[in-house]
């Protein structure tokens, strides 16, 4: 597997069932450190998004791009780029795909997940 690929993975507390981002060392609800790693399931739903018209340095080759919060059917949420900036609607379904999102500043390709709307353009 390509080491540049970042998988979407969250922690589910084995004590209380609380779901949280995997960067936390202890459960935010009960302070347990006993977790199961879980992946998103099903399609994602667009919860919110914004269009960046002045991209940061890493994405300088893009004129603009969309950044959205996507929630999966098992309640995992993630932040990610969306493959297009037009015809985006809150509640629409998206699927994660892997692709190069930018040439990094050190010249290496950055390949990660980006969300592609399931609905076709009208
Ligand atoms: Zn807990």
Report low-confidence residues grouped into runs of 5 or more: 1-6
Strand order in space, largest sheet? 6-5-4-7-8
Order of helices and strands: EEEEEEEE
Question: What's the overall average pLDDT, rounded?
Answer: 86
> What would the principal axes of the Cα set say about the shape?
globular
Summarize the structure in words.
Strands 6-5-4-7-8 form a 5-stranded antiparallel beta sheet, with no helix packed on it. The protein starts with 9 loop residues before the first strand and ends in a 5-residue tail after the last strand. It has no helices and 8 strands. 0% of the residues lie in helices and 44% in strands. Strand 5 and strand 6 form a beta hairpin. The chain is mainly β. The chain binds zinc ion.
Which keywords apply here?
mainly beta; 5-stranded antiparallel beta sheet; binds zinc ion; 122 residues; disordered N terminus
Helix-strand layout with pairing:
Elements lengths: L9 E4 L5 E3 L13 E4 L5 E9 L12 E8 L4 E6 L10 E11 L5 E9 L5
The structure holds zinc ion.
Compact description:
This protein has strands at residues 10-13, 19-21, 35-38, 44-52, 65-72, 77-82, 93-103, 109-117. By secondary structure, it is an all-beta fold.
């Amino acid at each position: 597997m390509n080491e540049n690929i970042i998988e979407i993975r969250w922690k589910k507390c084995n004590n209380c069932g609380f779901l949280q981002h995997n960067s936390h060392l202890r459960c935010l609800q009960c302070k347990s450190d006993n977790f199961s790693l879980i992946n998103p399931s099903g399609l994602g739903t667009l919860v919110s998004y914004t269009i960046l018209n002045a991209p940061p340095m890493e994405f300088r080759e893009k004129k603009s791009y969309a950044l959205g919060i996507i929630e999966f059917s098992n309640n995992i949420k993630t932040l990610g780029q969306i493959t297009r900036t037009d015809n985006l609607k809150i509640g629409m379904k998206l699927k994660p795909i892997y692709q190069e999102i930018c040439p990094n500043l050190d010249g290496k390709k950055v390949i990660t997940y980006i969300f592609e709307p399931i609905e076709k353009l009208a």
